[in-house]
Amino acid sequence: MVQDKPGGARDFFASETQGYILFPNVVHGRVVDLQGRAYPTTTHRSAYLNRPVPVCHPYNAGDAGKRSVILCKGIPDSLSVLAAGLKDTGACGLYGTGGWQLAWLPLFRRVGRVYVALDRDAIDRAIALARTF
After folding, report:
1. What is the rounded distance in angstroms from the CA atom of residue 81 to the CA atom of residue 83?
2. CA-CA distance, 30 to 19, in Å (whole number)?
3. If DSSP codes are grouped into helix, strand and coil, which group holds residue 132?
């Protein structure tokens, strides 16, 4: 919760007219973070909203040990990959195109191949991230 004014609070992921679909990041049965996806999507606000705290875990970090992993921009994109049911392929989500942290690299030490799947507006960022692996 974020304080609006003394004595009142508003939900960080909502407004009076539009809100965000919330996606939890669960690690060992505990919600460690949330990411909001705008619904409905408009040009007046960011498509994604993240809490204003440091992110300590990529989404679905447990899949980082699979044979291959698709590294996505956000939690909804990761869920789409998981719903596709690709055999021996996992999905991990960043919290936006700049959400990668070098400290997460050891999570992927057993992965044979990492596919970086960011949006078209982040091609340079995707290439730099792919070179990390």
Report:
1. 5
2. 24
3. helix
Neighbours of 101 (CB within 10 A): 14
- Give me the long-range contacts of 55-59 (CB less than 8 A, separation at least 24): 55/95, 55/99, 55/101, 56/32, 57/25, 57/27, 57/32, 57/33, 58/92, 58/93, 58/94, 58/99, 58/104, 58/107, 59/23, 59/25, 59/35, 59/92, 59/93, 59/94, 59/95
**With a cut of 70, which residues of the chain have pLDDT below it?**
1-18
Q: For the whole prediction, is pTM greater than 0.90?
A: no
Separation of first and last alpha carbons in the chain: 37
Neighbour tally for 120: CB within 10 Å: 6
> What is d(CA 28, CA 2) in angstroms, rounded to the nearest whole number?
27
Specify the pLDDT at position 10.
53
Written as six digits, the tokens of 33 are 């973070």
Q: Please tell me the distance from the alpha carbon of residue 79 to that of residue 62, in angstroms, as a whole number.
A: 14
Token look-up 């690690």 returns: 27
Supply the pLDDT for residue 3.
Answer: 46
- Going by C-alpha positions, the residue among 26, 113, 27 that lies closest to residue 66 is 113
